[in-house]
Amino acid sequence: MKRAGFAQPWLPMLLLLPQLTIIVIFFYWPALEAVRSSFYLEDPFGFGSSFVGLENYQILLESREYRRVALFTLFFTLCVTFFSLAIALLLAVKADKVLRGATSYKTLLMWVYAIAPPVAGLMGAMLVNHSNGMITHLFGAAGYEFRNGLNYSDTAFTMILVAIWKQIPVNFIFFLSGLQSIPVSLREAAKIDNKSGTSRFWTITFPLLAPTGFFLLITNITYALFDTFGIIDVVIKGEPGNNPLTLVYKVYVDGFRGNDLGGSSAQSVVLMVLVLALTVFQFRLIEKRIHYT
Amino acid sequence: MANVSVKDVEKIYPNGFHAIKGANLEIEPGEFIVLVGPSGCGKSTLLRTIAGLEEASSGEISIGDRVVNDIDPADRNIAMVFQNYALYPHMTVYKNMAYGLKNRKLPNDQIDTQVQKAALMLGLSEHLDRKPSQLSGGQRQRVAMGRAIVRSPDLFLFDEPLSNLDAKLRSQMRIEIRKLQRELGVTSIYVTHDQVEAMTMADRIVVLNGGKIEQIGTPAEIYNSPASVFVASFMGAPPMNLMDAVADGNSIALPGGALPLNHEVHGPVTIGIRPEKAVITDQANGATLPFTHDFTEELGAIRLVHGHLGDTPFVVHRHDDAPLPDGPLFVSVAGENVNVFDQATGQKR
Amino acid sequence: MTKTETNRGQSAPRKRRFKLEHLLDHSILILGSLFMLVPVYLIIATSSFDRITVARKGLQYTFSDQMAENFHMAMFESTSFTGTVDGFTMLMNSLILGMGFAIGKIAISMMAAYAIVYFRLRFATFAFWLIFTTLLLPLEVRILPTYEIVQGLGMINTYSGLIIPLIASATGTFFFRQFFRSVPEELVEAARIDGAGPVKFFIDILVPLSKTMIAAIFIIMFVVGWNQYLWPTLITTDEGLFTLVRGIKQIMLVIADNNKIPEFGVAMALAIIAMLPPVLIVLFFQSWFVKGLVESDK
Ligand SMILES: Nc1ncnc2c1ncn2[C@@H]1O[C@H](COP(=O)(O)OP(=O)(O)O)[C@@H](O)[C@H]1O
Ligand SMILES: [Mg+2]
Q: Where does the chain cross the membrane (chain A) (predicted)?
């Protein structure tokens, strides 16, 4: 608050009202509802529901299917996060370094941000089309029959590839702006202290990018967990079948297709806990994070 | 200790800007050279070209008889102190100082000895485990100095290292830097836009203007016989009194009188007189000019008397407390204290 | 160190190493750019072909002559993918979603941030936490109960049901709070001395001051709103409310259906129309976009 804040009592209430109303109705209510219904078992024919305590969670934890999805989600998240960060970092370092054409590269590398995930998924699906997709042909030329939608790991490959592609621009933009905020004189001091560019990168530039990196790490994990729904939905053509799924997709499948309200809610709560843990982790990092001023 | 020689160095930036126009400079081993000039005149460019952070467009730079044009900055055996210190924010004070030595593959115990020695010299021994963000401005400045010292370089380069400090600390560090440099005997090039810093610290001053070296000389030479109108007006506070006039041999005609010259000059000139070299009297003679008094600035030890000679503003230093004489006032200046510059070129005549 | 020999000899290798290094840098950047660019190029090229060719040969590298026709069909003929809605209607719906989302979010979050930063309000800390907790949980984890509540409120298949629940998060508020706090303290003091009340101060001083910030956030929010997929998929079953991105699901279902040859060219045209507005906005307002992204996400 500003030291000379206004003292009117009603105006601020009025100003807060729209935001508070919306988040109470569309955030707190559904969030609590999810927690509540995770303790109930819905009658499959819609005749009321009964309290079952932690049974939904127990079923979840014992479900091999759920564990498989969780494991795939972990793998998916790791791959997407690692590769999109690594590729974006490499490109940002190069774009920051070149003098000629830097702006053009910047534009070319960031515009994909604007493409919607399902549109990206559609492109991916076309590229791995079984009869005539280009990636399928590439694999074919290497002697491997790539079967998106039929072979579990092939489908996973497509999902991961598209998810990485879609996330590179954001990471690139953040890394580049992180790099550009390193003072020129700091790099020059390093040039006088250290002859090797590679060693300078790992001892000076990389540690200075750490705050950006930590931030992006969390952003990317969140992205891989939640924002890839559109990609997955399109790549597997809306057919869960035997395909790799992430936890969020399974919440959707069980809740809306399987009508398993309790189970889906329990999964939602598990995800909530996961996100909360991530947030706590993030705040810890921010607390510890070196303030470079 | 090394000598430095800059021969016909030109710097044209990739965008076509001609920042250094033919610089020539010979620096003796152990000398403390100050590059001074208004902001944007190319001081940093010249310094950074010597450091190897910019490539010279042409010309030759040698440090200790070794031509360094094509040598990496890290291999020139130089150390640089930056305006904003450029300390590595993620490293402790110790690591900041040790970093350059580590990269030269010095053994750890030797690094430690050198860092501890420098820290002791700079009063940083207590702070070796701190990060730069936990230090005050003055302490950061010292760390930057320490980082330069530990390398035992052939050449120190300073780019306005004191301009982020407050006035008091600045004058204190001025003395300290000079003391350290004398102790270590390392040849130094120091960039500043502050002429007081230049006057007080330099063995020799290099005055830069618009990418060109205007004059090289000891502080006294620069002050007493500036090579151009630019140097005359840039060095000294309050600045030298300047006015246009016509010289006819051994004297110079001015409104209401004439001033003597100690050498023969003809034609349109600009003359320059230091405020402390002019004397106010109430006695007119052949070599005085009528002076109109406007107001007096009291500076404690001295007084600045502001007035006019004809239409031209003119300032005189007065050291004595006596009040100005009543009645008409006159200014007299000895011939050797009248600096004469060409009106067209601004160069000394 | 006083070596007498000159090191002119080293000049050549140093220069050459530079050139090689530059070549490598540019190669990496060009490869990266191609990686980002090629899939989209293929879609554009393919949108110029007839469906038979695409069905037989897949995505195309070159251009044919069917582009105008395909785009015309995508925009104005309703039969190809969905039953009753044409591309033009979906474009309008996408615009409504993108604009509604961006404007709504900016309006409510600026108001809330103003209340929190500029008023002496005991309840401010509580409001702050209430609002900022929403940063923790994305819509996806509470999707089912949200859907049921919206259904219960009779907002299925309405624009408000489409837009408002998406606004229920604090990203905008957080950002404006940060920005308002960085506005010099003296400004509000001067304004009060000049006799400006809170409404006048907001409209005459704070909003004009926030102009670039608002523009930057608007761009980000428009793109985010436009690109929504899961929520529109659930909440709009009436085709008249389909957005372009929602329509991708329809395309995908048709392509997945092996019984007939889908209108591939038209599908690609629709996909292009779906990505064109946000891409253009990002390209045209690149610096604002980057500013909005980097400053709002932190
Ligand atoms: N990288 C660069 N590209 C183009 N022009 C530059 C560059 N760096 C400096 N300049 C220009 O060169 C001139 C001298 O700069 P500089 O040496 O930094 O001045 P000083 O240190 O004396 O203030 C200035 O006009 C500046 O704008
Ligand atoms: Mg400078």
A: 12-31, 69-93, 105-128, 200-226, 266-286
CATH hierarchy code of domain B4-234: 3.40.50.300
B254-263 pLDDT, tens digit per residue, is 878 888 888 8
Domain C97-242+276-294 listed as CATH 1.10.3720.10: yes
**pTM for this prediction:** 0.88
Write out chain A residues lying below 8 Å of B79, CB-based.
192
Instruction: Break chain C down into helix, strand, coil percent, rounded to 5.
Output: 75, 0, 25
C248 membership: H or E segment, kind and range: helix C244-256
Ligand 1 mutation target, pool B9, B11, B15, B17, most atoms within 8 A of CB: B17
> With b meaning 16 or more CB within 10 Å and e meaning fewer, what string describes A132-169?
ebbbbeebeeeeeebebbeeeebbbbbbbbbbbbbbbb
Looking up residue A159, the CATH number of its domain turns out to be: 1.10.3720.10
Q: Supply the pLDDT for residue C4.
A: 38
Placement of tokens 């905008």 in the chain: C172
Identify the burial level of B178 via C-beta atoms within 10 angstroms of its C-beta, where 0-12 means exposed, 13-18 middle and 19 or more buried: middle
Q: How many structural domains is chain A composed of?
A: 1
The DSSP code for B65 is: T
Helix, strand, or coil (residue C194): coil
Torsion angle, alpha carbons of C278, C282, C285, C286, to 10? 180
Long-range contacts of C148-154 (CB under 8 A, 24+ apart): C148/A30, C148/A33, C149/A25, C149/A26, C149/A29, C149/A30, C149/A33, C150/A26, C150/C235, C153/A25
Mean pLDDT, rounded, of chain B: 92
Domain with CATH 2.40.50.140 in chain B: 241-342
Q: DSSP assignment, residue B57? A: S
Kindly list the residues from chain B whose CB atom is less than 8 angstroms away from the CB atom of residue A207: 90
Closest ligand relative to A99 C-alpha: 1
Task: State the burial class of residue C177 (Cβ atoms within 10 Å of its Cβ: 0-12, 13-18, 19+).
Answer: buried
**Nearest to B192, CA basis, from B26, B33, B5, B14:** B33
Q: What pLDDT is attached to residue A245?
A: 93
Q: Would you say residue A48 lies in a domain?
A: no
Q: Evaluate: CB of B13 within 6 angstroms of ligand 1.
A: yes
Residue C17's pLDDT band (cuts 50, 70, 90): low
Range of the domain at A223: 64-289
Q: Which of C294, C295, C169 is nearest to C231 (CA)?
A: C169
C3 touching B, CB under 8 A? Answer: yes
Which CATH code is given to the segment(s) B241-342? 2.40.50.140
- Cβ–Cβ contact B70 with C under 8 A: yes
| Residue B135: HSE in the Cβ half-sphere, 13 Å Cα cutoff | 26
- What's the ipTM? 0.89
Cβ distance C7 to B68 less than 8 Å, yes or no, reads yes
Tokens read off for C87: 């591309």
